[in-house]
Each structure stands twice: as C-alpha cells, then as structure tokens.
C-alpha cells in the first residue's frame, strides 16, 4: 500500500509492506505542485477484492462524499 494522506492540513506519505507501516510528513519545501492536496491510496497485489477493500475503507471514512471516487483497474 502506498499513498498520500492529508492529515491536519499537511500531506503525509504512507507506505506499508506486510506488517510494516511508515507515515511521514512531506516537508513544505519538497511539496511543489505535485497534487499532494488530494488523498490517494494505491493497493499493490494480486487478486485484490475491490468490494472488500471498499467496505474496509468505508469503515474508516468520517465524512461521507456525494459520490465515491473511481478505482482504476488494470
């Protein structure tokens, strides 16, 4: 799992491999204009069940959006 999460108004990089998680704030000088203002998660793996992931993520949401973001399939 990799991603960018905005926590307390600042972007943080997330990387997780098995049971090891790393969450690091992006320094202001390194932010630039790279789309770090949006939360993004990238799931890396085989045979991932989209609906199962959506349910797990929905349990984490504290604010409901009018329409869920699309998930790109490969």
From TrEMBL:
Transmembrane segments: none annotated. Residues 2-61 form the CobW C-terminal domain. The keyword Transmembrane does not apply. It comes from the Eukaryota. It holds the Pfam family CobW_C. GO terms for molecular function: nucleotide binding. InterPro entries: CobW-likC_sf (IPR036627), CobW-like_C (IPR011629). Keywords: Chaperone, Nucleotide-binding. This is COBW domain-containing protein 5. It comes from Frankliniella fusca.
């Amino acid at each position: 799992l990799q991603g960018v999460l905005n926590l307390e108004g600042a972007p943080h990089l997330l990387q997780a491999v098995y049971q090891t998680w790393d969450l690091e704030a992006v320094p202001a000088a390194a932010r630039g204009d790279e789309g770090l203002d949006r939360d993004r998660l990238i799931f890396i793996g085989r045979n991932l069940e989209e609906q199962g992931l959506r349910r797990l993520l929905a349990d984490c949401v504290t604010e409901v959006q009018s329409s869920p973001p699309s998930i790109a399939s490969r």
